[in-house]
Design goal:
The protein has six helices and two strands, in the order αββααααα. It has about 160 residues and is mainly alpha-helical. It folds into two domains: about 40 residues, no CATH class; about 110 residues, no CATH class. A two-stranded antiparallel sheet has the order 1-2. The protein starts with 18 loop residues before the first helix and ends with a helix.
Length: about 160
């Protein structure tokens, strides 16, 4: 729900969450892609809580968010539509071409993870991100290694 700007700001304000959201989650205000101000829940996913607890770095968290966006772009999840952007949901997207469709990007990212940690661990990382699972302590090193490899290969 859009709210009328207050004060001297010309920026539109999106819904900043209700009281229950603020009580149960850490919420920060940030500028959206369209210049509006919006609330962002910073502890909603396990990767967010892992970052907050110091189990993963900000670089690894960014790679995990990238992987989640690749899943979204491949059609694995349904996200609410942004009418201003009907060409895809990823903030990491490249210029459109036949070789950057969501499924092809997912294939490439899966191969990248496999190169970094092997097939079994790549599948585990994808399942952890896709299902929002917690990472067991005996797997955290390989989880982090896979995300670091993804960051080095696709985000730098």
């Amino acid at each position: 729900m859009k709210q009328t700007p207050t004060g001297i700001s010309d920026k539109p304000i999106n819904d900043v969450g209700n009281e229950a959201t603020h009580q149960h989650h850490n919420v920060t205000l940030e500028q959206g892609e369209d210049g509006s101000i919006r609330a962002r829940i910073t502890d909603q996913l396990n990767i967010d809580r892992m970052l907050k607890a110091g189990r993963i770095t900000t670089t690894e968290h960014r790679a995990a968010e990238f992987l989640l966006e690749v899943f979204v772009d491949a059609g694995a999840f349904v996200k609410s539509l942004n009418p201003a952007d009907t060409t895809g949901s990823s903030k990491y997207k490249k210029p459109p071409s036949m070789m950057t469709s969501g499924l092809m990007r997912l294939r490439d990212v899966a191969h990248c993870l496999e190169e970094g940690v092997g097939e079994d661990d790549a599948v585990s990382i994808c399942m952890i991100i896709a299902k929002d699972l917690d990472v067991h302590e005996n797997f955290i090193d390989n989880f982090r290694k896979g995300l670091q490899h993804l960051d080095e290969s696709h985000l730098r």
